[in-house]
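Q: For a teaching session next week I want to show students how multiple molecules come together into a single three-dimensional assembly. I've collected the sequence lines for a complex. Could you give me the predicted structure tokens for the whole thing so I can convert them for display?
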Amino acid sequence: EVQLVESGGGLVQPGRSLRLSCTASGFTFGDYAMSWVRQAPGKGLEWVGFIRSKAYGGTTEYAASVKGRFTISRDDSKSIAYLQMNSLKTEDTAVYYCTVEFDYWGQGTLVTVSS
Amino acid sequence: DVVMTQSPLSLPVTLGQPASISCRSSQSLVYSDGNTYLNWFQQRPGQSPRRLIYKVSNRDSGVPDRFSGSGSGTDFTLKISRVEAEDVGVYYCMQGTHLFTFGPGTKVDIK
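A: Of course. Below is the structure for the complete assembly, covering every listed component.
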């Protein structure tokens, strides 16, 4: 059974950093691209970025709203994808989901950026 | 950047009746490999999104056959043949041809 578990969310002040983790199981993690999607309170879904599998270079792509501030990485030996969020803004407040192929999703982790 | 629009944004439906949601993209979603990467997602209240349809018209495993997707190029449609109570939620289209972009969502509830 495929499982994705996000962790690392919480309350953080504007301008600070936070790292989210997505721990995967039930599939060969290294074979798949991993994406992050967020949802601000009461709002719709927003794609944040993704990281390709090593077979496709392990390269990353980001939404314009987070490019230069957020970094996605992966540790295939641990089956974990990371979302490093720097220079956080109040508008980054959202539930952050990880997803594999948009087919399986985690339960999400809430990030609140507030002073 | 590709902009996705949906209509209507709110859709009150009668149980047992059909429902239809339109999704339009600002650019053609036909990829260089010939595929059209247009997906539909359902998000029930308090739950994570769930993909229903991929590549325009392919139902995901376990998705009831009352859900169907159609369209081409820039115009796409999700249809529910007979709405059931469990279909209440927000429906999103998402393009995956030019990176990824979600539509604004259509809230489906029961009249």
